[in-house]
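> example.struct
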């Protein structure tokens, strides 16, 4: 060691000076990154929900937002911006400053469906940095109590006998609720008419009133109406029965193999947000999702916490997009 130090001392002074500057610069850079991450957030954070209050996207955002607010010692504001299948909220987020203070609680279809569905989508996938898939869960096939169908097979038979006569409501064009209905029509070979709303909750209101006969909704919201007897549940769209409604068969058990769809909700933000901030939000969200109380809350909504990495989220979007591209084509769907 002494010999090494002696050798260094014999080097030209300018070489030593360069090394000292390099070490100092590296230390300042690391210190700056650590400080930037530890200082974020130093003001309130907004989570944009691109659908009306009361739907599943809204519920998930509020559960997670409340806990993140406590962890960050900052207010986390839920900002509902419904319309255009989530495009209004998505565009607002994409155009916000890339600093992590405006997040979007997106439904999966906004990235796996809308690029194929909308001719003039006001946002693109490259407008966002992807943080984490927060939670996922199955959908529930729900019908108005006056519909003369008590099983999925009976509903399919009814739809085939009355092409385009059955209306199904959704949270908006391109929403997960919309596409779950289109996927049902595609798998069953039936022709049903889509009625879009500005949020999932509004679709259920008209389902109960009989304005639409069918909604394939996120199980968190849809199960409330089934359990109260205000509507009838025919099937869940996951690979297994849901602990929330164990008496309801899967679509496969109900006679429609191949019909399986899962709703999921992810945090994203404007492209160009510092990686340190994105990584912090992802880690903190995963930390929140690991809490037993939060897992229990989500389970009560029929949801499974995820908390994956940005890379894993991007990969899942790429893999799922092919399925929806095919359904959009099969159903001849297009929106200006």
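> example.seq
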């Amino acid at each position: 060691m002494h010999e090494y130090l002696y050798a260094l001392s014999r080097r030209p002074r300018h070489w030593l000076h360069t090394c000292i500057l390099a070490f100092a610069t590296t230390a300042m850079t690391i210190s700056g990154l650590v400080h930037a991450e530890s200082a974020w957030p130093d003001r309130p954070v907004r989570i944009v929900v691109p659908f009306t209050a009361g739907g599943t996207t809204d519920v998930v955002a509020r559960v997670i937002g409340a806990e993140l607010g406590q962890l960050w010692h900052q207010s986390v504001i839920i900002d509902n911006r419904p319309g255009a299948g989530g495009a209004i909220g998505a565009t607002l987020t994409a155009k916000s400053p890339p600093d992590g203070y405006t997040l979007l609680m997106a439904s999966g279809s906004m990235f796996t469906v809308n690029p194929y569905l909308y001719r003039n989508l006001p946002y693109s996938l490259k407008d966002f940095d992807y943080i984490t898939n927060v939670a996922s869960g199955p959908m529930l096939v729900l019908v108005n109590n006056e519909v003369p169908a008590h099983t999925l097979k009976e509903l399919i038979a009814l739809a085939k006998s009355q092409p385009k006569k059955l209306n199904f409501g959704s949270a908006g064009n391109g929403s997960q609720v919309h596409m779950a209905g289109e996927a049902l029509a595609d798998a069953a070979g039936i022709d049903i008419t889509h009625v879009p709303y500005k949020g999932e909750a509004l679709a259920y209101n008209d389902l109960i009133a009989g304005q639409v006969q069918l909604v394939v909704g996120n199980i968190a919201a849809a199960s409330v109406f089934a359990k109260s007897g205000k509507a009838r549940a025919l099937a869940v769209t996951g690979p297994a029965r849901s602990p929330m409604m164990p008496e309801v068969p899967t679509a496969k058990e109900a006679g429609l193999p191949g019909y399986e769809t899962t709703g999921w909700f992810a945090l994203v933000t404007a492209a160009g947000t510092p990686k340190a901030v994105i990584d912090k939000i992802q880690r903190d969200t995963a930390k929140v999702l690991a809490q037993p109380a939060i897992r229990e809350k989500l389970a009560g909504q029929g949801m499974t916490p995820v908390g994956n990495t940005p890379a894993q989220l991007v990969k899942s979007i790429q893999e799922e997009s092919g399925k929806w591209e095919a359904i959009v084509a099969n159903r001849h769907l297009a929106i200006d």
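> remarks
Residues 1-37 have pLDDT under 50 and may be disordered.
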